[in-house]
Amino acid sequence: MTHVSRMSRSMFLAATSLFVMLTLCPMQAIAQDDPNKAPADAIKGEMNMTFNTRTDAGTDDGEPKKGIKDVYATNLTINGNRQIQGNISRQPRIKQMKIRTIQQPQYDFDLNWIALIKGQGPKTVGKWIGVMPVDEKSGAYVLDGAGDSSRALRISVDVGQAFTDQFGGRFYGKPEDKSKLTWESFKRTVNGKEVEYKYQADPMRFDGTILAEGPDKGRYTRCTVTGSLDYDRATGNYISKNLRMAYSFDGKDYNDTVTGTIKWVEDPQRQSNGKGRYEFNLRWNEDKMTKPVPEDKVANLKDEDAIFAVTPGIPSLTGTIEYVDTFAGSAAKDPDGKPLPTNSKATYNLHAEGLTKQQVMNFAKLWMIAVGPTNDE
Question: Which of 94, 138, 317, 327 is the most exposed place for a label (fewest CB within 10 A)?
Fold first, then answer.
């Protein structure tokens, strides 16, 4: 009986200790057990872009030579355990005498999905392949192969639960005709004060754009994107006012609204050292989780700077994409007459706070299909 009593007392004390721990630290216990919480290092890696169409050897009378392509060599890790690796190539539009199109623009995706599993080596589980043509009349980026499923942009997984799913719909990049651009205003409340940022919007518009399921079936499901990501031509910044992502996970529907900014910061010596960076400050469902920026962080900021201030405690994607550009041998110029890069190395170091893995993956796919508009200046 004594032995039994001691065992019972020992089990009681252990159970009590566990109860106290869970009671005092419930959020910590939940966070540790949540398999859908995105890691802090959300998107990391590199993209090395070679703009062959801008070099002396790749141009002819100021136009890219037929058959010459730009290449985006990609090596990115998403959510710490899924890697996307390979090339995206860009074939530009070529017009003869600047009138008749003799080469249609398109992007060819040839990317591998790689699983990074602890205790095991990297394992290729599928591909992200297909063609994304650009419609000449509307400027739309066509994700569904224009009705040809063999050309459609798609994710195909052949390990485990094998499946193939297609991207769909259209999105519209920054238009060539800038005469109809409108002035827009972006407002947010910082420390109880409403601040405003005005800009001439050169928008990327998403009209029922469908991001394919994958690379994990059931975890990274299809996502439908609407709204726009506006480019400010004067500063190189991006503004998100109404970007929406709708998807399902584990039997529940989600509708995320992404707001905020991606600020372009250019080194004063960029023409010589090639340096610049995007500073991310995108917030998920900000209207549902209003929390002011601590006063000491904005007390000395001008209104325009406060627009870009990071808000602690709100689910967000922050961090940078650092660029080092090379201008050697450039035969292409920007609107101001400065040479455009012939090579650009982008280093991704994006952090998640309070986001799910699904939210990070959805944004990563969206940013990848927009590789041209976001990198081609």
Answer: 138
